[in-house]
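Record passed on underneath.
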Amino acid sequence: MFILGNLFIAVAGVLEMAIRFLSWLIIIRAVISWFSPDPYNFLVQLLSKLTEPILYPFRRLIPAHNIGIDISPILAIMALFFLRMFLVSSLYQLGSMLR
């Protein structure tokens, strides 16, 4: 059973790292958007391709033209924080119980 416990702990660690990385990418994209970036810049395109699948559902939920500001990054970071607190913590605890 300890192997399964270690697997859950490892999955939780990788998932936590991925969630933190995505959160930082969303923050960087939001800050860069304040400065009118060049849309043909490789880094801007990369940030867009990595974060758009996460931000798009929140943009559909609350369109920016309704309130005048795009709050999808805030909502996405809150959702990622919830996943980190709930899912990652649960996987860590489950892995610890199976050790």
User: Anything to note?
Assistant: Residues 2-98 form one domain.
